[in-house]
Amino acid sequence: MSGVSWPIENELNEIKEIVSAMAGRGPEEVRVVVSPYRICPLGAHIDHQGGTVSAMTINKGILLGFIPSDDTEVILRSGQFKGEVRFSVDEVQQPRPIRKKGESHATDSPKLQEAGNWGNFARGAVYALQSRGISLTQGITGYICGSEGLDSSGLSSSAAAGVAYLLAFETANNLTMTPTENIEYDRLIENEYLGLKNGILDQSAILLSSHGFLTHMNCKTKEHKLVPSPKQSNFQKSYKILLAFSGLRNALTNSPGYNLRVVECHEAARILLKASGNDNLEPRLCNVDPEAYETHKGLLEPNLAKRAEHYFSENMRVMKGLEAWASGNLEEFGKLISASGLSSIQNYECCEPLQQLYEILLRAPGVYGTRFSGAGFRGCCLAFVDANLAEEAVTFVTEEYQKAQPKHASQIFTEKAALICDAGDCARVI
Ligand code: GLA
């Protein structure tokens, strides 16, 4: 697709060779699912409450090469994880909720799932289709591989894997699904099969984004639109997306957890709805009228008040951000992103370990705005940065983070603490 530099021909050929050797068939028979990672410039942690979010994909992600089996068998290998996964698509799949103790999180990449369990996303995809009455007859022989070092970084490697398996199984079984249907199937993988109470931001971004546009998703109505960037003066070339890594990839086990925050938001919604005489509505913050929030917010105890404040202020930042993007005002867009980062630190309280990285990025040359990426708690911060100063910003962040957090910095998979990338396209089968 025009303007998108990933995947490159060599990567595709390598994957085709591996699958062809696994299946004993010709490389020309191998199809490849391209499933990009996503960023969410504005709209943090409000998707599960029916808020409005913004998103785009990047030119990194997951590739899944596959050939339909001649029977129901699934055989999978991975570029990152050990072992071979084997099962049959006609086995009935049952949910495997995440473990309570330690609060493991389904948006962790397959790597953080129990050893040998990386195949859960493939089983989860079969579960999702089965639970909507679709029985598969064709398995696949496949090889899955993610861009180096980017799993568990808050870029949604888990939704990228879920979407990749859905598209592969559907293609192998000659099923044509709309993006909306696949958004729902991936929701079933995460919410039901894995037990994470997350929203639909990740898979919507992966399935709906288009290069050059900002995806705007209303998570209550499920309506979306693609907001074009200005055509004038090569806008797309004027900025880069910078990902700065914290070196923390396992910290979720020590954190209060994603699901806990979701429960707090529901509780805040329940109190506000009751106070405004609307307790017949589902307790999600999108069902609370902003005016009712202003009138009754004094009823919320401090933690719940902060979560609600994050929700309502973040929705407003998204709306302002869409305007700033459409008019090509990167300064304003960036300011809103940094304000979102601050609210995630102060109100949503989900990214304390990333705070130093965020503060370093605020001082880095050319940075328009920055915030943590993904669920917070660990992973990376994203920044929109002036393309001409992007390299300088990488050097600055690398040096400063090394000084601030030498131990965490030593855990980062590259020598530099940050990586520059560009916008990507939607998931597709090639
Ligand atoms: C994770 C979840 C998403 C969303 C983000 C935070 O990526 O999977 O549903 O809540 O965190 O915005």
TrEMBL record:
Q: Name the domain of life.
A: Eukaryota
GHMP kinase C-terminal domain span: 326-401
Tell me a GO biological process for this protein. Answer: monosaccharide metabolic process
Metal-binding is among the record's keywords? yes
Q: Which GO terms describe its cellular component?
A: cytoplasm
Q: What's an example of a GO molecular-function annotation for this chain? A: ATP binding
Which positions fall inside the GHMP kinase N-terminal domain? 122-208
Any Pfam family the entry gives: GHMP_kinases_C
According to the record, the residues making up region (Disordered) are 93-113
Q: Where are its TM segments located?
A: none
Checking Gene3D superfamilies in the record gives: 3.30.230.10, GHMP kinase, C-terminal domain (3.30.70.890)
Keywords, in A-Z order: ATP-binding, Carbohydrate metabolism, Kinase, Magnesium, Metal-binding, Nucleotide-binding, Transferase
Descriptive protein name: Galacturonokinase
Organism whose genome encodes this protein = Populus trichocarpa
